[in-house]
Amino acid sequence: ETGVTQSPTHLIKTRGQQVTLRCSSQSGHNTVSWYQQALGQGPQFIFQYYREEENGRGNFPPRFSGLQFPNYSSELNVNALELDDSALYLCASSSYRVDTGELFFGEGSRLTVL
Amino acid sequence: EDQVTQSPEALRLQEGESSSLNCSYTVSGLRGLFWYRQDPGKGPEFLFTLYSAGEEKEKERLKATLTKKESFLHITAPKPEDSATYLCAVHGGATNKLIFGTGTLLAVQP
């Protein structure tokens, strides 16, 4: 059983640019959640996708958007990057919506915005 | 507003020195409280889910307990490999998100 994989692992962008982060969910999982983790903080919920539909969103502006594909992989897109977007972006998959609580996290994509 | 507070922020223990980490929470309609472990540069790893006050879960040297206002993660006779950040999260109300605390950074010295 393959785990959650994310790409790229590290990237550097400049303010105003756009970025796309990718996530392959664990085999058999149909729900993907994205979290942002700033240095020294806990993860903050961005949004969740269930069967290709957005299924909940945190307090993030519309320039944070996402997609889930038929194979349940997912993308996180961030437009008009700001310095405060520098963080570890975590993807988590699960078999159901978060009621089960057991999220399987990838190792994250470390984004630095200069 | 749903909130999770973890204490202490950091804890240094000698190998074999037992201790507890605290997670206090306010949430409307708790649907679950979760403990995760996070190693540097990695994603969180699921440890436990607790659903109701009085519930306890154990795994090796770790035991998690839950009351109506807080949860404790007890670490018995820790080893250096237990060093990590321990995150607490709650799921409440009608949302599909976990609300995480800022974590406790545990360092166990040999």
Q: What would a concise description of this structure say?
A:
The complex is a heterodimer of chains A (114) and B (110). Helices cover 0% and strands 50% of the residues of chain A.
Descriptive key words:
heterodimer, A: 114 residues, mainly beta, 0% helix, B: 6-stranded mixed beta sheet, 11 strands
Question: How would you describe the overall organization of this protein?
Answer:
The complex is a heterodimer of chains A (114) and B (110). Chain A contains no helices and eleven strands. Chain A has strands at 5-7, 10-13, 19-24, 31-37, 44-50, 53-57, 64-68, 74-78, 87-94, 104-105, 109-113. In chain A, strand 5 and strand 6 form a beta hairpin. The model of chain A has no long low-confidence stretch (mean pLDDT 92). By secondary structure, chain B is mostly beta strands. In chain B, strands 2, 4, 5, 9, 10 and 11 form a six-stranded mixed sheet that branches. In chain B, strands 1-3-8-7-6 form a five-stranded antiparallel sheet, with no helix packed on it. The A-B interface holds A 4, 33, 35, 40-45, 48, 55-56, 58, 90, 92, 97-108 and B 4, 31-32, 34, 36, 41-46, 49, 87, 89, 91, 95-103.
